[in-house]
Amino acid sequence: MGEKEEHDYYFGNLPKTASEVELRTFLKEYGDITRFEYRLAKCTYCPTKIAYIVFSKALESDAMEELNKKTFQQKRLFVCSTKSEKFFTPLLSVVVRYLNEHISEEDLYKHFSTIGPVECVQKPAHNYAYVSFRDNSSIRRAFEMKQSVKGIEPYIVAVRRKISMFLEPRKPMAYASLKEKCKKLDLVYNPAAENEATMLVTNIPRDTEEDDVLEFLGKFGKIVDWEMQKSSTCVMSNVGYVTYQHPKMARTAYLCCPLNFQGFGMDVYNRLVLYTSKDSDQTVIIRRTSVCEYSGTVGRLIGLFNELLSLADLTNDEIYEQCAEYGRVEYIQRMDAVNYNTIVRLDTEKAAMKVTYIKHIAGEEVVIRFYTAKMYVAPTLASRATNKSVPPKRSRKESMLLHISDIEERRNLTMLPTTDNGSYFNVNPLFYRNEVQVWNYAPRQGLVEFREFFKKYGNVINLREMKENDTSTTGVVYLSFETKLEARRVCKLNHSFMCSRRLLILMADQCIMHDPKLCVKVSNLTEEITDEDVHDRFGMIGDVRYVFRPKTDQAVVCMAKEKWQARALKVMCVGRFYVVVSSLLPAGDQQQPAWSTHSMPQVSGPSDWGTYMGPVPTSANGPMGSMPPMGLGPDSWRSLGPPVPPSVPFEMQAGMIPPGGPSMPMPMPGPMDPGLMGGGSQISPRMRSLMQAVEAQMIKSKNFTTLSMGDQFNLVRDVINQCLSYPTFLSMPGDEKIRYLISGTSDFRQINIFTLFTYPEQLKMLSTIESYYRSTCPPGSLPAPAPSEPSQTPGANSLVVLTQDSKDGPATASATRGSVALANNSNDPKASPNPMELDDDDIPPAPSPPPISFRSRSTSPVPDGAANGTARKRPSNNPSSAMAGKVKLAKKRDNEPWAEKPYVFVGNLPKDISQHFVLALFRKYGNILHISEPQSRVPDSTTYVLKFETMHQANMALELNLTMLQGKLLRVELCKRPHKSRPGRAIMVVCTGIYSEVEIFDTFKSCGKISFIRTIEKPEGEVCLIDFEDKESATAALKITYLHNGNRCKATPHEFASPRKPEYIED
């Protein structure tokens, strides 16, 4: 037996497909094999397997060195005797994260060999690997490496404790049973612990991805529930509660503890197994493993994390490494959140005695005593530190903690603020189990569609849908999953898009907490206004956390900051539709909720409605009470009343109309009663005549006639006040007047109403008011009108396109009804009509607020002086000529020097982009052998051609296609590879106003991933061709009628020469 142990060897990094016969044949020349055993052959977590092989004679040192340099089936072997086990140590090893299955150990070996000699490369999983060097100087250079590996930029971190190079030891589990482990480690055995399926996992670094930890723990068995939170004993770590499907799986994970993962060791505890109360000479206590005083940066950390005043900053790995210098560490228990005491058990009494002499661990002062139960439970006061200097390791932890805090805060913005819903009722817990609720989903989505969308995170086993009524398009879907873990992971998919809808997902037994300081209520919505329209409108103000729409006509919008919530209250329209925005709290009362309390109806079946809005959290100024359940009955939303009118922002002058105007509706269009109005304000004859003149001019404008009489009066009154308070306003051109009113710098308080009108209507109204005002004032008392102002105001039913910026002088081109005036044919009486026919009702409203410049920001090419767009050859309608052209094009590509070669075309780059920037941008995908700069066919842009080492690298570089760079859409394609546009996935888009390819791309990308976009010049104007990756996205895009900038658009299916064959489009 001893001889076998002496000649037993570990063979690592073996391919999964290698058979025993193949490996025996490979090792035949090194001696006779007496015993052979494969390990990890069926493990799906580890990409390779290992073997324990016993030779009849010991291998020579030269043979061992030769084997470690050889490759077996394209895998570099790692051979080591089981008697001299090797380790990855913090001084000589690093961990490489964020890898994938395409990066092998040999790729990492070649990558890191450029900075120093590599001893071993081991990849325990697809997403990370260990790299061990022969000297410590290579570690520093490894952290400074910025080069990518097969297009992936790895994340390199330090190894935090000594980890064996054996993926699996000869004896897989250190203890055969739970009873044996308790006996050897002086733990109190509890028979009930054999059936415990939930384990506590500690010492998880906070910069570790949660999905990676779950994947690692999943190799012991199926996980049904998981919850991770911050540790109360160490600020640098997290803890997790993992529940397995069977107790045997949890017991296996407990017996294999500690679990080495990504350079650190995770400790697993069973809540029913505690440490003994007997005194032990092999066990020590590290008293109060926390730092008593912090200042400076850590003082900010206390405010950031709201953690304990005593922050434990020593990790289990640091304690393990320090104690392991004197002997083998068998057990670490660190669960005391009161006294912060840590239990450490060593293999011998001599080692424990030496550990008691330790005074510092990781630069922190510690007190170590032999273990007694009385000392462990006795309270310990933290002594005031005498040394005021901050250890270097603590300073690095502080900076790392600030970085981790920023990442966690950004991640929390995507999570919904939730609380327990005590009114949740499950009609059948056995049939509808582990439910999540999904809001804002598209209509007619069934079990098949949801199962396909969530298949990566779990299996949807059941579905139930609740709506206000059978015809309602808004409701909530409850999805059931097999395990609670799957349900929790699905809840992290908030704001993901499904059929162009931004989903809101939370657990079924929870509800959303609406913060009244961040949220506003939006009413008067219609079915034509989608959730994404509401999100985009409020996104113009600032970041939107979520849009919750439990009813068709009402929604709650949560902004990311309080300053944006105040601006959101001023919104009065979404698109062209008028809406009412109000606070969740009543005006003038910040302590009471906006709705009265009423009982929550229970859900008794799919026909009942049991979802509610959720409570309002307690205010910092005092308790606000709880928000009542928000059902979808007729009284579920209470009217908050109109907002308080803003105060007058400027000093009143003689002749100004006081704010508020008439408190009663004014008759229209007849003359007003000269008597007093209901509010006590008297309308002067001049103001009454002005209102009649404006009503006569705007009578055909539905945007004006649909306003209330009070809003009409307030709008005209505020414009007159601008003429009185700022006389220079009268000498401005029409464009400058509009910009001045909506800029926010003036005292104009009717911005939301004024932006409901189209641009011609705004000009017409201002021209009418100014003309009447000048006619009633003495000659010479007012400034001269703008000299460049046009004498004739466009009609209310005309669409106007600005062809140059206002700073260069106004330039407009009007078109008759149903047509769009282009910059290059506005004077042509025979201009072709636009394919979109617009009537009076379809005139899009002006954006709120419109951009400072009306000039398009499109990056499309402009050949031969044409407006934004690139000329494209239309495909031939003759099938035979089209087929002949394709054959000719294919032969031409075969004869070209770059056919099937890794040449990448990069176009539409900004003019000032240099070669160094392009190389830095694309170097992460592979080695660039050559770069050239051909002449660009697009004005004000730069073009480059890159040659990569392999076609795989060139294909990976294509992921930068259609990405934004300094306001331009990059074109990244393989050279001389025409795009293959497929039927059912391509659409043609035309729009009114100034053409902008960027605005079209920003609008239609919400429908799905766009694989190709080009501008085609046609006689009637520019048309944008968009090709989606799937047919569902193209179908959803056909329903879009407005761009994000407010311009009208129309999407139609692209007509192919052959309905069943793809179409090739040359760039």
Walk me through what this model shows:
- The structure is a single chain.
- The chain is built from 28 helices and 51 strands.
- The radius of gyration is 36 Å and the shape is globular.
- Helices cover 23% and strands 23% of the residues.
- α9 packs parallel to α13 (392-413) and α21 (734-742) crosses α23 (759-775).
- It is α+β, with helices and mostly antiparallel strands.
- A 5-stranded antiparallel sheet has the order 13-14-12-16-15. Strands 2-3-1-4 form a 4-stranded antiparallel sheet. A 4-stranded antiparallel sheet has the order 7-8-6-9, covered by helices on one side.
- Among the domains are: 8-164, 2-Layer Sandwich (Alpha-Beta Plaits), CATH 3.30.70; 178-293 and 311-381, RRM (RNA recognition motif) domain (Alpha-Beta Plaits, 2-Layer Sandwich), CATH 3.30.70.330; 408-583, Alpha-Beta Plaits, CATH 3.30.70.330; 702-776; 903-1053, 2-Layer Sandwich (Alpha-Beta Plaits).
- The protein starts with a helix and ends with a strand.
- A hairpin with a 2-residue loop joins β35 (573-574) and β36.
In helices, the fraction of residues equals 10-25%
In total, how many beta strands? 51
Largest sheet, described in full? 5 strands, antiparallel
CATH homology superfamily name of the domain at 178-293 and 311-381: RRM (RNA recognition motif) domain
Q: Number of DSSP helices?
A: 28
State the gist of this model.
This protein is of the alpha+beta class.
Mind sketching the topology for me?
Blueprint: H1 2-6, E1 8-14, H2 20-26, E2 33-39, E3 49-55, H3 61-67, E4 78-81, E5 87-88, E6 93-97, H4 105-112, E7 118-125, E8 128-133, H5 137-143, E9 155-158, E10 163-164, H6 178-184, E11 187-188, E12 198-205, H7 210-217, E13 223-230, E14 237-244, H8 247-255, E15 259-261, E16 264-269, E17 274-275, E18 280-287, H9 297-305, H10 316-323, E19 329-333, E20 342-346, H11 349-355, E21 360-361, E22 364-365, E23 367-371, H12 373-377, H13 392-413, E24 418-420, E25 435-439, H14 447-453, E26 460-467, E27 475-481, H15 484-490, E28 497-498, E29 501-502, E30 504-507, E31 510-512, E32 519-523, H16 531-539, E33 544-551, E34 554-559, H17 562-568, E35 573-574, E36 577-578, E37 580-583, H18 685-697, H19 702-705, H20 709-725, H21 734-742, H22 751-754, H23 759-775, E38 799-802, E39 812-815, H24 879-895, E40 903-909, H25 915-922, E41 928-932, E42 942-948, H26 951-957, E43 964-965, E44 968-969, E45 971-974, E46 979-981, E47 986-991, H27 997-1004, E48 1010-1018, E49 1021-1028, H28 1031-1037, E50 1049-1053, E51 1063-1065
Antiparallel strand pairs: 1-3, 1-4, 2-3, 5-10, 6-8, 6-9, 7-8, 11-17, 12-14, 12-16, 13-14, 15-16, 18-20, 18-23, 19-20, 21-22, 24-31, 25-27, 25-30, 26-27, 28-29, 32-34, 32-37, 33-34, 35-36, 38-39, 40-42, 40-45, 41-42, 43-44, 46-51, 47-49, 47-50, 48-49
